[in-house]
Write a structure and sequence with these properties.
The structure holds two protein chains of two kinds. Chain A is of the alpha/beta class. Helices cover about 40% and strands about 20% of the residues of chain A. The chains are: A alpha/beta, B mainly alpha.
């Protein structure tokens, strides 16, 4: 056994040394968190494993975890580029500038940055329309909530999160026009203690459904203890709340990673700015559980309509929080506005931190 | 029965000098055992850690980038610690240096002039020094414990920076993401040898600070004053030195260097302000200061070694798939052995049995 391990590790070193000469395509992943965080980074790592399993010997995947955003990220990306990585996925917003900097130095290496907005000849930006899933959650909340108020645990007030809050509320208001949301910001992507405290505070204020744009299962556990319902985030969190989770937005990057690696192998990789949604399978809904059949049916119908393109969550008439009109009846929000979204719609009981 | 540490009457000069090397050796042995237990070839792992980052030119540049802030901060802290002032808040002074130094490139982002950079650096030093002045003032005025006050000010600085980049200093063209404008070219610390890698002037500052501080401690009255007051405030007073002035000097000096490190990092390696500008450099530098035995030249070497373990940790992750956590544990080994060796040189471990303790107690009464 020991000999085998030794041989394998030596082989690994050799394969690094010979780099491009090998037939296997080297695909590298940069993670901001731990690959077992139960949320965001774990979802990316599952995608990496799917990529590895799909191609077997034809690809070699490498990752670096817990890399801080800033100069450390730049060095890590450069190290990837120099160690023979042909395709590099950098999976956090804060990796955008470092990715662009390194990409400039290595025009032959392809880079893909998640959740940013800048692209280059050899840098693609890819993102997921998480807000589509939030609309379905809102629909469910609108039908399930008795008090008509949901609690929303936010990470940082960046456009992606604001989209989610607004979309959730639009879904809920399509059932109950008076539906409202209370928001608590925890200023962290992953802090189980703070997230749980936020959930407690929200429940004490009378909300009877909790949803979150943070990555730990803390809120789900608090909701279970208090006997109310909640939605999971980034990964299926049903284990944390078997009686509690209504559904969850599940990030499924695997298919995308496979598609892009295939494109690289075929020589058809070109730069793109990708913002895929439910229809493309980049996000999926966890099974609809702990709800009556009519709610489940409504949720499935909504999902089908979003997938078919019949329903776009950000379609007017929509009124901003301050009472002014954002979208006229039938008007759809363009992606540019959504990517810079910095205002709430009517019904959010919170001031957006400016 | 209990275990006691007893101060040695005299410690061996030879072992004092050898101690860091013994510690390094022990770390390597312990690390090799750890790697083997994880099923990795220990030679490959140690190679990735200590040699691989040194085999390429660009990687040497990265080493200097990583080491520069650690050295700058630690050199300042060494003066502080030698004078018996415990500034634990270098992280906050680093951040405030970055913030104050960034005022110019953020408010006058179209101003392209050779004056910009020197102005930023000076403002960064002032920012760090003034922020370090707060615990000094609290200590001299109200006799506040500077360990607590300087530490707590770190969190204030972090939140202040966070508020700035999400609020008033947020890039108006940045889609609401929490970061400032990118600095223009005249506000970016120049690279030393752009052809081969990204190392910037930061390491030159670190080198200058190291040499000047070494000179001050070795050949100037100020250095003597620092040592005397640090070893015995009473003796210092007899010599006519003022502890109050020394407290301010130590904090302002270390704060200014931490501030310089902060603005150098923001201007050179990052190029804008963002919520996180430091992977805990201010705290790691405390370790560097002690690893270098509070001697500026030793600190320079220690900064390079610690930076090497960071780079080596990454290399080991990529080339042999060693988990990130193990790399951290390995770093922990190094610090543990350094402290253990130092302790055992200055102290002797003694087993005290119950009977012996009792007779000693009687003897004392």
């Amino acid at each position: 056994m020991k000999k085998l391990i030794l041989a394998l590790s030596t082989a690994a070193i050799l394969s690094v040394a010979s780099g491009a000469a090998q037939a296997a395509t080297k695909v590298c992943f940069l993670y901001v968190g731990s690959k077992t965080d139960g949320g965001w980074t774990q979802a990316h790592d599952i995608g990496r494993q799917e990529l590895q399993n799909h191609f077997g010997d034809k690809v070699e995947t490498v990752f670096l975890e817990n890399v801080p955003e800033g100069p450390d990220a730049e060095r890590a990306i450069e190290r990837f580029a120099r160690s023979g990585c042909e395709l590099i996925f950098t999976t956090s917003f804060g990796f955008m500038e470092p990715t662009l900097k390194v990409a400039k130095k290595f025009p032959d290496v392809k880079f893909e940055h998640a959740t940013g907005y800048k692209t280059e000849e050899n840098v693609t930006s890819y993102n997921s329309r998480f807000y589509e899933g939030r609309y379905i959650q809102g629909k469910i909340a609108g039908m399930m909530s008795k008090v008509g108020v949901a609690g929303y645990i936010g990470s940082f007030p960046i456009p992606e999160v604001v989209q989610g809050i607004n979309s959730f509320l639009l879904g809920a208001q399509s059932v109950n026009p008076d539906f409202a949301i209370k928001v608590v910001w925890v200023n962290s992507w992953f802090d189980a203690g703070k997230e749980a405290d936020a959930a407690k505070a929200l429940i004490d204020q009378g909300v009877d459904i909790i949803t979150q744009h943070t990555d730990s299962t803390g809120p789900m556990q608090v909701a279970s203890e208090r006997g109310i319902k909640a939605f999971g985030q980034a990964s299926d969190m049903i284990d944390a709340g078997p009686e509690t989770q209504l559904t969850a937005i599940v990030d499924t990057w695997g298919a995308y990673y496979i598609k892009r690696t295939q494109a690289l192998m075929d020589g058809t990789w070109t730069t793109q700015s990708i913002w895929d949604g439910l229809a493309d399978g980049i996000l999926q809904m966890a099974p609809y559980t702990n709800m009556p059949d009519d709610v489940k049916q409504a949720a499935m119908d909504t999902e089908a309509k979003i997938v078919s393109g019949e329903l776009k969550p950000f379609t007017g008439p929509i009124t901003k929080q301050d009472g002014t009109e954002w979208l006229k009846a039938g008007e759809e929000a363009d992606d540019g506005t959504l990517l810079g979204l910095n205002f709430y719609i009517k019904g959010v009981d919170d001031q957006l931190p400016q | 029965m209990r275990i006691e540490l007893e101060k040695r009457p005299a410690h061996s000069a030879l072992f004092s000098m050898l101690s860091p090397f013994i510690a390094l050796g022990l770390t390597i042995i312990a690390g090799a055992i750890l790697f083997t237990a994880l099923g990795k070839n220990p030679f490959d792992a140690l190679y990735s850690f200590f040699i691989e980052p040194l085999t390429e030119l660009w990687s040497l540049h990265e080493l200097l980038i990583k080491a520069a802030p650690l050295i700058l901060i630690a050199v300042g802290l060494s003066v502080c610690f030698r004078s018996n002032n415990w500034n634990i808040g270098a992280e906050g002074q680093f951040i405030m240096g970055g913030v104050v130094g960034s005022i110019v490139p953020i408010y006058f982002h179209e101003w392209n002039s050779f004056v910009v950079l020197p102005l930023m650096l000076i403002m960064g030093m002032i920012g760090g020094a003034l922020y370090a002045g707060i615990p000094a003032l609290l200590k001299t005025r109200f006799n506040t414990n500077e360990i607590l006050s300087s530490l707590m000010l770190v969190y204030v600085a972090e939140l202040f920076l966070d508020w700035l980049v999400r609020g008033p200093w947020r890039n108006p063209e940045g889609f609401n993401f929490p970061e400032s404008r990118s600095f223009n070219d005249s506000a970016v610390l120049p690279e030393l040898f752009p052809a081969s890698g990204g190392a910037n002037l930061g390491i030159v500052f670190a080198l200058i600070a190291t040499l000047l501080t070494w000179f001050m401690m070795r050949h100037m009255l100020k250095g003597f004053e620092v040592s005397v007051l640090g070893q015995s405030a009473r003796a210092g007073r007899f010599a006519g030195f003022s502890s109050t002035k020394m407290i301010f000097f130590a904090f302002l000096f270390s704060g200014a260097l931490a501030g310089l490190a902060g603005i150098s990092e923001v201007s050179g390696a990052i190029g804008r302000l963002q919520p996180d500008i430091s992977p805990a450099y201010g705290f790691t530098a405390i370790i560097v200061a002690f690893l270098g035995r509070l001697n500026p030249l030793g600190i320079f070497a220690a900064g390079i070694i610690l930076a090497l373990t960071y780079l080596g940790g990454e290399a080991a992750q990529i080339s042999i798939g060693l988990p990130d956590k193990v790399a951290r544990v390995f770093q922990g080994f190094l610090l543990f052995f350094v402290l253990a060796c130092d302790t055992l040189i200055h102290y002797r471990v003694r087993l005290v049995t119950a009977i012996k303790a009792r007779t000693e107690g009687e003897g004392a009464s």
